Amino acid sequence: MMRLQGKTAIITGGATGIGRATVQKFLEQGANVIFTDINEENGRKTCDELKRVSENVMFIKHDVQSEEDWALVVSEANDKYGRIDVLFNNAGIFSSKPIEDYTIEEWNRLMGINVTGVFLGMKHVIPIMRNKESGSIINASSIAGLKGAPNHALYGASKGAVRIMSKDIAMEVAQHKIRVNSIHPGVIQTPMGDAVASGVKLTTEQLASHIPLKRLGTPDDIAHLVVFLASDESTFITGTEMVVDGGSSAR
Ligand SMILES: NC(=O)c1ccc[n+]([C@@H]2O[C@H](COP(=O)([O-])OP(=O)(O)OC[C@H]3O[C@@H](n4cnc5c(N)ncnc54)[C@H](O)[C@@H]3O)[C@@H](O)[C@H]2O)c1
């Protein structure tokens, strides 16, 4: 039996990186997947490619900051499948520079995508999950939401907000058997991971040498955890923060 057989999932930011790897793993495990992204061209291309894994995949262009877009995505998913079992709030952007160089517009944009996007996703999906008295929500935070780092004030604040919001909502919806967990990747080899490496002016090899397991993470390292949290193997896990960082934050 496949681990996500019969489940319907919404995954944001699925055109590339961690989101794309997760869409693929979900399809391999039997889920119906509606994935979204603001980048329509990449989203459509990814969808065509992943149709080779399973026909049960659909792409919708979506800006996670837009409440109108969220209402549309959730109603399309619910109309098509009659249920939403999993929400992976994965879409996010990264930024790194000294605090005095940030503008208020940059602050609002980063918070809009990384925090408001997560809030809106939960707000719109929870009523559907509540009807079935079950569901799993996985929110992408980061080790930057657990530990401080220079030049990370905006990104770290956004990921810290995701961490605690996940725990708050977990407490709010536990009575309906809906679970909410945050995940905290270290540096993962994606377009964003490349931006992290160039922000600290290190090659990926140099960055890897600072990690106890001596490698960067792969998108599949994260996708495997998300499959576990989405599946019925984790039905006693909620309100927790799961770190996948090769040991970096254990120091
Ligand atoms: N890569 C890392 O090293 C790393 C580490 C820790 C946490 N994370 C988190 O994991 C998540 C995925 O990261 P990734 O490395 O795959 O990133 P990525 O940049 O490779 O991909 C992110 C995807 O989100 C999409 N996106 C951006 N803004 C959007 C919006 N407004 N609405 C909808 N989609 C939007 C992008 O088009 C892109 O396809 C992010 O939340 C990120 O903060 C990544």
From TrEMBL:
<dbReference type="InterPro" id="IPR036291">
    <property type="entry name" value="NAD(P)-bd_dom_sf"/>
</dbReference>
<dbReference type="Pfam" id="PF13561">
    <property type="entry name" value="adh_short_C2"/>
</dbReference>
<keyword id="KW-0560">Oxidoreductase</keyword>
<protein>
    <submittedName>
        <fullName>Glucose 1-dehydrogenase</fullName>
        <ecNumber>1.1.1.47</ecNumber>
    </submittedName>
</protein>
<comment type="similarity">
    <text>Belongs to the short-chain dehydrogenases/reductases (SDR) family.</text>
</comment>
<dbReference type="InterPro" id="IPR020904">
    <property type="entry name" value="Sc_DH/Rdtase_CS"/>
</dbReference>
<dbReference type="InterPro" id="IPR002347">
    <property type="entry name" value="SDR_fam"/>
</dbReference>
<dbReference type="GO" id="GO:0047936">
    <property type="term" value="F:glucose 1-dehydrogenase [NAD(P)+] activity"/>
</dbReference>
<dbReference type="GO" id="GO:0008206">
    <property type="term" value="P:bile acid metabolic process"/>
</dbReference>
